[in-house]
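Subject: for your reference before the review

Hello V.,

The reviewers asked for a structural picture of the protein, and I figured it would be easier to keep everything in one thread rather than splitting it across files. Below is the amino acid sequence we used in the manuscript, unchanged from the supplementary table.
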Amino acid sequence: MYNLIRKDFILQKYLMLFYLFIAIFYTMTGMSMGLLITVLSVFFTINSHYYDEKGKNNVLLNSLPFSRKQIIASKYIGVLIFLFITTLTIWLIRFICQDIVSNSMTRGNITELLISYAIAILFVSFYFPFFYRFPNRILLSGFSILVIMMVALGKTIVSKFGNVMSDFIGGIQTFSSQFSTTGLYISAFVITILIFSSSWLLTLKIYENKDF
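And here is what came back from the structure prediction:
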Protein backbone atom coordinates (compact mmCIF):
# COMPACT_ATOMS: atom_id res chain seq x y z
CA MET A 1 0.00 0.00 0.00
CA TYR A 2 2.95 2.30 0.63
CA ASN A 3 3.77 2.29 -3.10
CA LEU A 4 0.15 3.15 -3.98
CA ILE A 5 0.20 6.17 -1.66
CA ARG A 6 3.63 7.14 -2.95
CA LYS A 7 2.30 6.91 -6.53
CA ASP A 8 -0.35 9.58 -5.87
CA PHE A 9 2.27 11.97 -4.51
CA ILE A 10 4.73 11.28 -7.35
CA LEU A 11 2.06 11.82 -10.02
CA GLN A 12 1.37 15.22 -8.47
CA LYS A 13 5.01 16.16 -7.86
CA TYR A 14 4.80 19.20 -10.13
CA LEU A 15 1.43 20.17 -8.71
CA MET A 16 3.02 19.98 -5.26
CA LEU A 17 5.13 22.98 -6.25
CA PHE A 18 1.95 24.74 -7.31
CA TYR A 19 0.31 23.85 -3.97
CA LEU A 20 3.38 25.20 -2.17
CA PHE A 21 3.19 28.45 -4.15
CA ILE A 22 -0.49 28.83 -3.24
CA ALA A 23 0.29 28.12 0.42
CA ILE A 24 3.06 30.74 0.51
CA PHE A 25 1.14 33.37 -1.45
CA TYR A 26 -2.12 33.14 0.47
CA THR A 27 -0.42 32.77 3.84
CA MET A 28 1.45 36.02 3.11
CA THR A 29 -1.87 37.71 2.31
CA GLY A 30 -3.27 36.57 5.66
CA MET A 31 -5.77 34.08 4.24
CA SER A 32 -7.54 31.82 6.74
CA MET A 33 -5.35 28.81 7.51
CA GLY A 34 -8.37 26.53 7.71
CA LEU A 35 -9.70 27.64 4.34
CA LEU A 36 -6.28 27.22 2.73
CA ILE A 37 -5.90 23.67 4.09
CA THR A 38 -9.40 22.78 2.89
CA VAL A 39 -8.82 24.16 -0.63
CA LEU A 40 -5.46 22.40 -1.07
CA SER A 41 -6.91 19.11 0.21
CA VAL A 42 -9.78 19.36 -2.28
CA PHE A 43 -7.28 19.96 -5.11
CA PHE A 44 -5.22 16.95 -4.04
CA THR A 45 -8.28 14.68 -3.80
CA ILE A 46 -9.67 15.65 -7.21
CA ASN A 47 -6.29 15.32 -8.95
CA SER A 48 -5.61 12.00 -7.24
CA HIS A 49 -8.78 10.58 -8.82
CA TYR A 50 -8.19 12.37 -12.14
CA TYR A 51 -4.76 10.81 -12.72
CA ASP A 52 -6.16 7.32 -12.09
CA GLU A 53 -8.93 7.89 -14.63
CA LYS A 54 -6.58 9.51 -17.15
CA GLY A 55 -5.20 7.00 -19.63
CA LYS A 56 -7.12 4.14 -18.00
CA ASN A 57 -4.59 3.89 -15.19
CA ASN A 58 -7.15 1.95 -13.16
CA VAL A 59 -6.80 -0.93 -15.63
CA LEU A 60 -3.04 -0.96 -15.08
CA LEU A 61 -3.42 -0.79 -11.30
CA ASN A 62 -5.72 -3.80 -11.29
CA SER A 63 -3.21 -5.81 -13.32
CA LEU A 64 -0.57 -5.28 -10.65
CA PRO A 65 -0.28 -7.32 -7.42
CA PHE A 66 -2.52 -4.96 -5.44
CA SER A 67 -5.94 -5.82 -4.08
CA ARG A 68 -8.83 -3.44 -4.68
CA LYS A 69 -9.05 -2.99 -0.94
CA GLN A 70 -5.47 -1.67 -0.91
CA ILE A 71 -6.15 0.66 -3.86
CA ILE A 72 -9.12 2.29 -2.15
CA ALA A 73 -7.40 2.40 1.24
CA SER A 74 -4.43 4.23 -0.34
CA LYS A 75 -6.78 6.99 -1.56
CA TYR A 76 -8.31 7.66 1.85
CA ILE A 77 -5.05 7.33 3.79
CA GLY A 78 -3.24 9.47 1.21
CA VAL A 79 -5.62 12.38 1.79
CA LEU A 80 -5.11 12.14 5.57
CA ILE A 81 -1.32 12.19 5.08
CA PHE A 82 -1.66 15.19 2.74
CA LEU A 83 -3.74 17.01 5.39
CA PHE A 84 -0.98 16.45 7.94
CA ILE A 85 1.81 17.53 5.57
CA THR A 86 -0.13 20.62 4.46
CA THR A 87 -0.75 21.69 8.04
CA LEU A 88 2.93 21.36 8.96
CA THR A 89 3.98 23.21 5.79
CA ILE A 90 1.65 26.16 6.41
CA TRP A 91 2.72 26.36 10.06
CA LEU A 92 6.37 26.39 8.91
CA ILE A 93 5.61 29.17 6.39
CA ARG A 94 3.93 31.19 9.15
CA PHE A 95 6.88 30.62 11.46
CA ILE A 96 9.35 31.81 8.81
CA CYS A 97 7.18 34.82 7.97
CA GLN A 98 6.19 35.55 11.57
CA ASP A 99 7.07 39.22 11.18
CA ILE A 100 4.48 39.50 8.42
CA VAL A 101 1.85 36.93 9.38
CA SER A 102 0.61 36.32 12.91
CA ASN A 103 1.83 32.95 14.18
CA SER A 104 -0.05 32.76 17.47
CA MET A 105 -1.81 29.44 18.17
CA THR A 106 -4.95 30.76 19.79
CA ARG A 107 -8.07 28.80 20.65
CA GLY A 108 -9.73 30.22 17.54
CA ASN A 109 -6.93 28.92 15.31
CA ILE A 110 -7.24 25.42 16.76
CA THR A 111 -11.00 25.47 16.23
CA GLU A 112 -10.50 26.70 12.68
CA LEU A 113 -8.02 23.88 12.05
CA LEU A 114 -10.40 21.23 13.35
CA ILE A 115 -13.24 22.60 11.22
CA SER A 116 -11.03 22.60 8.12
CA TYR A 117 -10.08 18.96 8.78
CA ALA A 118 -13.76 18.03 9.17
CA ILE A 119 -14.72 19.81 5.92
CA ALA A 120 -11.87 18.19 3.97
CA ILE A 121 -12.70 14.72 5.32
CA LEU A 122 -16.40 15.16 4.59
CA PHE A 123 -15.57 16.28 1.04
CA VAL A 124 -13.53 13.10 0.52
CA SER A 125 -16.34 11.03 2.05
CA PHE A 126 -18.85 12.29 -0.53
CA TYR A 127 -16.46 12.69 -3.46
CA PHE A 128 -14.95 9.22 -3.79
CA PRO A 129 -18.15 7.09 -3.75
CA PHE A 130 -19.83 9.43 -6.23
CA PHE A 131 -16.93 9.62 -8.67
CA TYR A 132 -16.13 5.91 -8.53
CA ARG A 133 -19.79 5.09 -9.17
CA PHE A 134 -20.41 7.15 -12.30
CA PRO A 135 -18.42 7.41 -15.57
CA ASN A 136 -16.57 10.67 -16.22
CA ARG A 137 -18.70 11.51 -19.28
CA ILE A 138 -21.88 11.48 -17.16
CA LEU A 139 -20.23 13.56 -14.47
CA LEU A 140 -18.95 16.05 -17.06
CA SER A 141 -22.44 16.42 -18.56
CA GLY A 142 -23.99 16.87 -15.13
CA PHE A 143 -21.35 19.40 -14.13
CA SER A 144 -21.85 21.37 -17.37
CA ILE A 145 -25.61 21.54 -16.80
CA LEU A 146 -25.02 22.65 -13.21
CA VAL A 147 -22.67 25.45 -14.33
CA ILE A 148 -25.20 26.68 -16.93
CA MET A 149 -27.96 26.70 -14.31
CA MET A 150 -25.77 28.57 -11.84
CA VAL A 151 -24.89 31.21 -14.47
CA ALA A 152 -28.52 31.62 -15.54
CA LEU A 153 -29.88 31.72 -11.99
CA GLY A 154 -26.82 33.19 -10.29
CA LYS A 155 -28.46 36.06 -8.39
CA THR A 156 -31.44 33.95 -7.33
CA ILE A 157 -29.21 31.11 -6.10
CA VAL A 158 -26.94 33.46 -4.14
CA SER A 159 -29.96 35.16 -2.52
CA LYS A 160 -31.65 31.87 -1.62
CA PHE A 161 -28.39 30.32 -0.45
CA GLY A 162 -27.67 33.32 1.77
CA ASN A 163 -31.10 33.02 3.43
CA VAL A 164 -30.77 29.27 3.90
CA MET A 165 -27.26 29.58 5.36
CA SER A 166 -28.37 32.36 7.69
CA ASP A 167 -31.22 30.21 9.01
CA PHE A 168 -28.95 27.16 9.21
CA ILE A 169 -26.20 28.96 11.13
CA GLY A 170 -28.78 30.45 13.49
CA GLY A 171 -30.21 27.01 14.15
CA ILE A 172 -26.75 25.54 14.75
CA GLN A 173 -25.88 28.32 17.20
CA THR A 174 -29.12 27.80 19.10
CA PHE A 175 -28.58 24.04 19.20
CA SER A 176 -24.88 24.22 20.14
CA SER A 177 -25.57 26.66 23.00
CA GLN A 178 -27.21 23.77 24.86
CA PHE A 179 -23.97 21.75 24.99
CA SER A 180 -20.42 22.24 26.21
CA THR A 181 -17.63 22.97 23.73
CA THR A 182 -15.90 19.67 24.57
CA GLY A 183 -19.11 17.74 24.00
CA LEU A 184 -19.60 19.39 20.61
CA TYR A 185 -16.02 18.60 19.56
CA ILE A 186 -16.38 14.95 20.56
CA SER A 187 -19.76 14.62 18.82
CA ALA A 188 -18.46 16.26 15.63
CA PHE A 189 -15.37 14.02 15.69
CA VAL A 190 -17.43 10.83 16.11
CA ILE A 191 -19.88 11.82 13.36
CA THR A 192 -17.06 12.74 10.96
CA ILE A 193 -15.25 9.44 11.58
CA LEU A 194 -18.48 7.45 11.09
CA ILE A 195 -19.18 9.21 7.78
CA PHE A 196 -15.56 8.75 6.66
CA SER A 197 -15.57 5.03 7.56
CA SER A 198 -18.94 4.46 5.87
CA SER A 199 -17.69 6.23 2.74
CA TRP A 200 -14.57 4.05 2.73
CA LEU A 201 -16.64 0.86 2.88
CA LEU A 202 -19.12 2.12 0.27
CA THR A 203 -16.36 3.12 -2.16
CA LEU A 204 -14.68 -0.26 -1.67
CA LYS A 205 -17.93 -2.06 -2.46
CA ILE A 206 -18.46 0.07 -5.59
CA TYR A 207 -14.88 -0.48 -6.75
CA GLU A 208 -14.97 -4.24 -6.13
CA ASN A 209 -18.07 -4.55 -8.33
CA LYS A 210 -16.59 -2.42 -11.10
CA ASP A 211 -15.35 -3.95 -14.35
CA PHE A 212 -12.18 -2.68 -16.07
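For the response letter, the relevant points are probably these. Residues 2-133+179-208 form one domain. The chain is about 85% helix and 0% strand.

Happy to draft the paragraph if you're swamped.

O.
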